């Protein structure tokens, strides 16, 4: 929760984290002096659909390639463990699309657009 806040990400409830984190399909963390300074997760149904979420690096550790290391770990797990034809998506905030493009992700527009709803 502290890393999300430090990186300027939208806050999540403690209750939501307690339910959601154990359902992570694959996760990656980067530690510095026993502190988590970077993270990323893959969530999904385990067969057809996967989403990369929670990619962030603490501002004091940005610009060192940690985001790229996290993405490389997540993409490697996806390539190794998902069935053929799986669909992997993510939402790119700000300039993060530049990182994701390095791993083969492409905008879906104009064929489709991402949408969200917060109940």
From TrEMBL:
One of its GO terms (molecular function) is acyltransferase activity, transferring groups other than amino-acyl groups. Keywords: Transferase. InterPro entries: Acetyltransferase_Butenolide, Acyl_CoA_acyltransferase, GNAT_dom. PROSITE patterns: GNAT. The keyword Hydrolase does not apply. SUPFAM superfamilies: Acyl-CoA N-acyltransferases (Nat). It holds the Pfam family Acetyltransf_7. Residues 1-119 form the N-acetyltransferase domain. This is N-acetyltransferase.
């Amino acid at each position: 929760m502290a890393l999300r806040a430090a990186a300027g990400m939208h806050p999540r409830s403690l209750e939501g984290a307690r339910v959601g984190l154990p359902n992570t399909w694959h996760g990656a963390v980067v530690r510095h002096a026993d502190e988590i300074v970077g993270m990323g997760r893959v969530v999904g149904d385990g067969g057809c659909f996967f989403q990369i979420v929670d990619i962030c690096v603490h501002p004091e550790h940005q610009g060192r390639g940690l985001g790229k290391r996290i993405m490389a770990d997540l993409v490697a797990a996806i390539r190794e463990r998902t069935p053929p034809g799986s669909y992997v998506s993510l939402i790119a905030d700000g300039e993060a699309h530049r990182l994701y493009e390095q791993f083969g992700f492409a905008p879906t527009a104009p064929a489709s657009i991402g949408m969200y709803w917060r109940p």
